[in-house]
Amino acid sequence: MVSFDINQLSTSNRKELCRDIDITVFRLVRFMDLERYLGRGAHGVLYSAGKKLGHELNPKTVEEVVKFCEDYRIGKVEIVGENPLQIRVGECITCSGLPECGEPLCWFEGGFIAGCLEKVFNKKVQAKETHCAGLGHEFCQFEIKIL
Question: Is the pTM of this model over 0.85?
């Protein structure tokens, strides 16, 4: 299988179209019928993929994670609670503006946050989404468990 690092993936030779894509393209890929192709574990696959990306970035600080999310327009990330640690994502790339559907949608982002924080804290981390547009909220929020 072909594997690219983050620097290779962020390189573009698109002189006119540049690096930006419409959020619709991202969401079309993200919300295709993954359970049909991956089975009932599709959410776990998205979480694991996000976690791998978080590890690959190898951030040293939470501030690096926040900056990456802003630079790459994943969302506006902020710490909103410390016991337990809670991270909020405003304008989330996956779900912001989507209608309520009765379930959380941001499995990839949860895995990404967990993977980044594992590198920062050098401990195992789990992220559980507690707020999401899919649940009727205006933002995403993740409760972080440091193991």
Answer: yes
